[in-house]
Write a structure and sequence with these properties.
4 copies of one chain form a homotetramer. Chain A is α+β, with helices and mostly antiparallel strands. The first copy, chain A, folds into 2 domains: 230 residues, Hypothetical protein af1432; 139 residues, Up-down Bundle (Growth Hormone, Chain: A), CATH 1.20.1250.30. In chain A, the strands form 3 sheets. The first copy, chain A, has a 4-stranded mixed sheet. In chain A, strands 5-9-6 form a 3-stranded antiparallel sheet. A two-stranded antiparallel ribbon of chain A has the order 1-2. In chain A, helix 4 crosses helix 8, helix 4 packs parallel to helix 9 and helix 5 packs parallel to helix 13. The longest helix of chain A has 23 residues. Chains A, B, C, D: This is HD domain-containing protein. Chains A, B, C, D: InterPro entries: dGTPase-like, HD/PDEase_dom, HD_assoc_2, HD_domain.
Chain lengths: 434, 434, 434, 434
């Protein structure tokens, strides 16, 4: 593919817009961006839900990563438009920032969190591979310059030397988070994700290595961080959504087990084999979207293997496990597993202990490396102040990690235990945990 | 299944709510409704998009019929709550109205409009079959009474003797339309679907055979009808969405043709065969949701048959045909087909003429039977007036049918025509149509 | 005041923004605009309600013309930003358009419609006088150039030779209407004023003598015209609001009458005298805002004159007259007046017949001069089409004038009529009209 | 006035609604509520702005206390509707709660905060006097029962024995705050006031002495408290709004001073005299609304006294003082006053030090009496937990008082100081404070 010197700057004859319910309109003028959107790798993001199994808890959260990716692009486009009047901003980085924003989620697979855990994939690594591999996206980016794909990939992977551009897409107050908080709030119908993005954009200033916030914008950032906190606990960590992931996890674990045992599948898990074997090419990865995963789960309902059939059926028809809070203080996980075994219920497929945590804001301090760069306020005189030192509200949540653990199990199977002593022992125990 | 006398009236211990971005909350108190929502046939509606291929034009329109069905139920729930204070309303019909509202779209298949045209299915007939067949939904309804499934089905099919209940779910101002106008506007991000539903609900009165509108509510109904008009022309008939249907239509037509010819599919169209043969059981029908259809289309990209592979690829990766207005005045459809043949392009798979029309409001008059019942305003003295006789705006759109025709073809194939004379003839012709 | 050559182009060091609930933010960068906003004549618009007595019908409609004027300015600012890329737009007219937009309502007095009718004032004439007179606004404008005040005034008065700039502020689809429809809908809480302004702005193109609309924007303009239609009939012509104007009208008429008769006011109507005498200077005019009018009305409750006291009390404490539809078919206005006189109720102060009409869209045709310039769609080839010739919906409302008449009277005074025959005659008559 | 046994329960023939932009509709069915709304004392609240001088900072915040009072009533109406299904709620208190909600702000005077400080009035005391005095409101309430006015007044004054009803209207999570946060956010156009009121209402439970919150509603309450925190610091304490109060304060102080000195006013401050003398009857109090205050300020611009004229002019035409942060560390207030005197600027009228503080949430603990009752979460087993003990976010703001002080002065007068040494000394000082 020949590099065209003019391609980088090529503009569409007329601006194209996408009607968007969150940002009203998404504006595209660059030929490169337009061409990237049309690639099949980017179109594939229509087949990956932004919020995985969350639709099981919030029925209206059915939007895709395609949707979100356009939104992140649009926010960066507005950031850049504001930054152009500051000398700290190098106009030459405009297309890099826009492209990285658009493509930042390119490597997400179906039900990402779940798949990453069970098959040890890493969406950031795959984003890189897709951008650098034999793909339409790579062809478009290479027309800009031979180095451009690597540049875009390294911004997304946070290894690019331009820390300012990285901070626009991944930092504690970046376009990614600003889009998903608003978008996910919009689709779920909750009010928690509301903050004044237009104001946040107005108080952002480019500096050498990061976006900084004009001091007068502190309250707007507080509001944004509180939104984030609320969205995590009210939406993203919803135990019903986790319950969907648990079923998916267990069903895939069973399918892998059966595959390894040489079980004769009615619907052979062709596309899953590279995942089972943890030897996945870009092509394998791109093929397995949520349409495909759902197709297999629906098929596996009809398998002879009762465990696979049952777990698949539960996932497809939303017959979720029950959940209870669990902190290990009353009884250990192993002790429960023993009891399940005694009751004739296989804890490998009918018991799951899930734990999740969040830290709404933090920054690296001596002895506490978590790779989080602080949000800085900039004073009128140019001095920077880490934001939690200026805001009591933010200070109160800085570095505070909240952990919640839940235990999942099928209530119906408990009720069917034949040994009445074991049954009542288990029921009493679960009541105690509730 | 034994009928339980109390099941009809059984209430949940505590009201359940679904957070909904359009109606804020959807409230469920009836055990029957709760049980219906949990059936696998109702859960299946999560895998059918409310707007089919419209996401190709409006990226954010990815919501399901599950979503919409809950909304229609909620609107009827509010209608009933208002109606309870009128003697014209028989409280005994409450559960019938709620159930029919919830289930009214139960028989929708994947990409309904497209499938109905190509395979001659009828979602209303399948709704009836699902409700009366060997399904979980039927089991729940039968617990209310042996006749209840038939009652619900006949409300949805508009044959029930209670015309008032029918009009709540299907009439020119019903819960179905009120939900989808608002919901589709919400998801696409347009403002056209906005009308004051709370006011419309306040001015609705139950009467013997229909919902009537308090005279003072005329302007609110005007606003609703204008919303409907705008949504049809701006959203539902969007030619890009039609372009997606065109591709799906042609790909399935090719698959059927290949199947009939005995072509050896790499991915055998197992679930499509009953459709190809037009001999479909309820179980066949329920299995073929949009996950499955998408899976096959993605698979067929890899078929040997170039036509099936190409059309599938275009659908999956959104490489749409170009469209032009077409009214047959410059040239006939057949003449274009001839030209395509001369150019070596098969018009059976690479040419499509699509026509669509809408009538925002109408009612049956002598000599004009279109089976539309009028919207009636009710005066203070009880007299009814057909609404277009009272509103100049509505009169102006009453019975006005607007038809638009578009012609679809692949621009890239035109550009690759080898015979330069035919090529330029065809290009000139298409330019003339533009 | 010396003209400064650079003042016209002077920019604020940093953009100022006003948080606005309708347009999110209003952006000011021009020093001239900033200075105009700070003048006392512009600040005075805070003391004039945008919708006069409408708050009596919609309690939340309490916003001022200051509020609306900023909104019109902001819309023109966005129009200009879009127009800058077309050669038909002369950048030199930017400040003229912005200033005229900001100041277009400068001459509105308290409860404008009412005052104009009773005292024969004309807000457009006063806008001109304020701009050209010895005012702070004039001083600011004169710094731009000696001719600038006259230029701004002539745009607002529609006599400027630049018809394009005029059409931005006063035409059938101008910034004034686009702001007030949305703003008044926002404040009253109704959904009728909703249309997609961002889209309308995107399809507007500057042409020699007017703004034209890109053909593909036709539906957006339909939606806007329907909004206008609905707002007029649902909001602006609300009979309760008219009822407030009726009382104000009658109270002022009484005060004028008493003044002319030499009545000894407790609170002498100092500021009203120029109005009573219809000999009003700019200074007189500017002084009489709604604070002052309300103050007098509240004072006049305590006057000896029973009529003035009663009417003032009714206005201040919202004891409105009753209203009935009235078309003169059953009885003439004069016959009712006679009956009121027989009943001992003075029809000059306790009877009012009010008539109002609207035409949502029209344009001048031979034999029908109403000074309305059409909205033109522009085709891809540059040809203009009057919009009603392209849209059935718009055609249906073009030139259709709707008139409604209402009769206002105090129900309590009817109930207190002593002559029982007259009383029952009058009550029967009014019941017949109802 | 005779008590009618049935008046308490009398319902309107048809429900009346007020269209409201915040709550969509406000519903009235009780005759008593309808009659209260029509009283002149309640209508007077249309002439008192909800946010006093805040319109000087947020131009769109022009709404009245009438507006807000209807909103508080509506929220309590919804609370009561929810409470009716709990036995802890005594239906007999319904009308008491509704009436107290509607009337809770009845005693607010013009620019309340300002007037209360300068004239030592107390709006709560005046609410009581208006309800118990010779007023239309008292007449309506007395028709319910002779004790009813006293009951309503004591709920508003928080002395009623029914602590649950009091907590609905005044507590740390009451209908008053829930309305004003949302309403003020709506009118100013900011997003900070957003929280999910429908959810908060759903998790409220009546208990003996207070409203308690179902445990699962904790996050919704967190969100509400954060809204409150943000609204205080971003909106209510805006220094520009304070700057308007400063001018009003100083102008009234001057008027009082002149009155006491026997100054010959052109516009004699008739209605202010009871305030100057701090001997105010209910009738005096009701007369002085914001229309009247504004009228006087506008008049006083034309007074001979230069100080009164100047301060009045600044207030009316928004020529605000400049403000600086001030904490007394660099220089004391007295030292600045000395400097002003040296400069020939009277610090009594041209210097003002303003301090304000807020505590978003607190509750009484031993040794810390601030008369705040905690918000309690109720566990499934009925135990109560003070909310900050359960929420880290709330704990972080509990009892944290934030104080900000600002110093106000007229920049223009500083620039006109004749003694150049004093001038530069003062300018340097002010620069240091900035």
């Amino acid at each position: 593919m020949e590099v065209e010197s003019s391609y980088r700057d090529k503009q569409l004859v007329e601006e194209k817009v996408f009607k968007d319910p969150v940002h009203r309109y998404i504006h595209v003028r660059d030929q490169v961006i337009w061409d990237l959107i049309k690639t099949k790798e980017f179109q594939r993001l229509r087949r990956i839900k932004q919020l995985g199994t969350l639709y099981l808890a919030f029925h209206s959260a059915e939007h895709s990563r395609f949707n979100h990716s356009l939104g992140v692009y649009e926010i960066v486009r507005r950031m850049v438009a504001n930054f152009e009047e500051y000398e700290e901003w190098d106009h030459g980085n405009r297309l890099l920032a826009l492209s990285a924003a658009l493509l930042h989620d390119l490597g997400h697979g179906p039900f990402s969190h779940c798949f990453e855990k069970i098959f040890h994939t890493d969406h950031e690594a795959f984003t890189r591979e897709i951008i650098l591999g034999d793909t339409d996206v790579n062809k478009v980016l290479s027309r800009v310059s031979p180095e451009f794909p690597e540049e875009v990939a390294s911004v997304i992977n946070k290894t690019h030397e331009n820390k300012l551009v990285i901070s626009m897409i991944s930092s504690q107050i970046d376009a990614d988070r600003m889009d998903y908080l608003q978008r996910d709030a919009f689709y779920t119908g909750v009010s928690y994700g509301t903050f004044d993005m237009e104001r946040v954009l107005r108080v952002m200033r480019p500096s050498k290595d990061e976006i900084v916030i004009k001091e007068s914008g502190m309250h707007a950032v507080e509001d944004y961080l509180m939104s984030r906190y609320q969205m995590y606990w009210q939406i993203y960590f919803h135990p019903v959504s986790r319950g969907g992931e648990v079923l998916l996890n267990l069903a895939l674990k069973r399918a892998k087990y059966l595959f390894e045992k040489g079980y004769a599948f009615k619907q052979f898990p062709k596309y899953f084999i590279p995942f089972f074997q943890e030897n996945i090419t870009v092509a394998d990865y791109l093929r397995l979207d949520e349409m495909v995963v759902n197709f297999y789960l629906q098929e596996w309902i009809h398998e002879e293997d009762e465990v696979l059939s049952d777990l698949s059926n539960r996932f497809v028809n939303r017959e979720l496990f029950k959940y209870l809070p669990f902190d290990g203080s009353v009884i250990t996980e192993n002790e429960i597993r023993e009891l399940f075994i005694k009751a004739g219920i296989d804890p490998d497929y009918y018991f799951f202990s899930d734990s999740f945590s969040d830290m709404p804001y933090d920054y690296d301090r001596p002895g506490m490396m978590n790779n989080r760069r602080p949000i800085h306020l900039v004073k009128a005189d140019g001095r920077l102040k880490e934001i939690s030192s200026q805001s009591a509200i933010i200070q109160s949540i800085t570095g505070v990690k909240r952990i919640e653990s839940k235990l999942y199990y099928p209530k119906d199977k408990i009720l069917e235990i034949e040994d009445l002593n074991v049954k009542s022992e288990l029921i009493n125990l679960l009541n105690e945990l509730a």
